[in-house]
Amino acid sequence: MKYLKIALACVLISTSLACLYLYYASTRIPQTVVIAAGPAGGNYYQLGQRIADQLTNDLGIQVNVLESEGALDNLHRIRDGRVDFAFYQPDTARGNNEDESPGSAAFVANLYSEVLHIFASAESGIKTASDLRGKKVSIGSRDSGDFAINNALFEHLGIDLDDIKVVDTSYQDIPKLLSSGELDAACMAGGLHSPAFAEIAQVPNIRLIAVPYADAMALHHVSTFPSSIPAGFYSSETPVLPAKESSTVSRRAKLLTRPDAPTVLVEAITNVIMDEHFQRSNELHELFAQGKTFAMANPEFSMHIGAEHIFNPELKPLLNPDFVEATEGLRSFLVSLFIGGWLLARWLRDRRLKQDEHELDQFVRRVLDIERRQLGLDEDESGKDIEKLQRLLDEVTQLRQEALGEFNAHSMNEDPSVACFVQMCHALSDKINAKLTRQRTDRWNRLLMESGKLPSVGGGEDQKPRPE
Q1: Which pairs count as long-range contacts for 62-67, CB under 8 Å and 24+ apart, including other chains?
Q2: Which domains does the chain have, with CATH numbers?
Q3: In the predicted model, is pLDDT for residue 461 greater than 50?
Q4: Which residue, 309, 225, 306, 270, is CA-closest to 111?
Q5: What does residue 267 show for φ and ψ, rounded to 5 degrees?
Q6: How far apart are the first and last CA of the chain?
Q7: Chain centroid offset of residue 384 CA
Q8: What is the pLDDT of residues 97-142, one digit of tens each?
Q9: Does an H or E element contain 206, and which?
Q10: In whole angstroms, what is the distance from residue 274 CA to residue 61 CA?
């Protein structure tokens, strides 16, 4: 039992240390975080750098912002676990005929609306969106959100991709290509304050083409919303750009993370995004005006529990969910250990009781042996058995003391066999004492008779003398 208590104490200490380590590991923010942004010069990349700077200032961690081909490439990197966070435009995977599994990523927040822009040079002769047929057009790489929303645009316009001359180029080269005539139009989606749009707007005689029947296009695509670009947004001086309000469509740019990303890290980046100063500094007008309503709308993927804690703090549990999940196996082990310890304790107790009963049997046999040995004594009237009886009495006394030393008070109270054994010892002691008394009395009377102080009684046979 002593060793069992020591073993249990060691297990408890080890378990406590393991829990402390797991809690530290579960609540520790990683020292390096990777964000998949988008092409350099785009809104994704710019905003990714701002988020990285804020996280570095707040937490002192290293944040790497990676260039990518765009939204679909970002989704692939999240799904493969190569990055911690990524920007994504909804319906990009479906637009590229890929399965957009809800479990491939986790939602953090909506950031802003990516508005579709159709920039066309004056020399191209493009006056309406339908004039894109047969022209040299940049529609973004196949792994980008631009490609997905442009695919929906051409479907809406009844234009096949084979009807246009697709020019594969980067954001930085688009202004130069539009100016030189190597590119007739660029169809791009991004925030209204994207630096790429501001640079393209500076191209001489550039036009902004409206999306016809934008409401109808939005109704055909769940994640697409009718939108507009205010007149004079990019240039309020002559030439005004756009000359009048331009109807178009938009999709919300989302920040995604890995489903298994640390909760504390997701909480930290969500706090950065929901900070009003950060929203004002990065002109996230919709997020600033609508707050959680805009941030949580149409998540498309399951919301990460870290983001849920920031949007709904009343649902935040007392213990870190990562710690609870990490200790699930440990809790099962502890419960199993507790049950196993309880069963072992019961087995040891039963074994001890059986051993006690075995020892009691030995004591009972020794009592019976003493009783058998005393049966033949006290038959000799000469009193020669006194010493033997006295030795047997001492033996019974010693046996009783030895037995009582083996049993505690609980076992004597609970086990009736112990009480029965004690009664047997008392009865045997009384019997031996009675024989000793008779032997001593007979011896004393015999001595008196031999000395003549006590006359013999009886008619022919000696009678036992009557004690004075």
Answers
A1: 62/31, 62/32, 62/33, 63/32, 63/33, 63/34, 63/35, 64/32, 64/33, 64/34, 64/35, 65/35, 65/37, 66/34, 66/35, 66/36, 66/37, 67/37, 67/38, 67/39, 67/40
A2: 31-326 (3.40.190.10), 336-451 (1.20.58)
A3: no
A4: 270
A5: -60, -40
A6: 60
A7: 86
A8: 776 677 889 999 999 999 999 999 999 999 999 999 999 999 998 8
A9: strand 206-208
A10: 19
Mean pLDDT of 218-241: 93
Mean pLDDT of 222-245: 94
Contacts of 421 (CB under 8 A, 6+ apart): 360, 363, 364, 367, 403
d(CA 8, CA 174): 71
Instruction: Return the SS3 of 258.
Output: coil
* Region of poorest pLDDT, from 178-192, 402-416, 448-462: 448-462
Model-level pTM? 0.65
The span from the CA of 143 to the CA of 93, in Å, is 9
Residues listed for the chain:
468
Are 89 and 147 in contact by the 8 Å Cβ rule? The answer is no
Residue 253: in which H helix or E strand, if any?
A: strand 246-257
Task: List residues bridging with 66 in a β-sheet.
Answer: 36
DSSP state letter for 85? E
Task: Calculate the alpha carbon distances from 164 to 134, 147, 186, 428 in Å.
Answer: 5, 14, 12, 119
Chain position carrying tokens 């020669």? 384
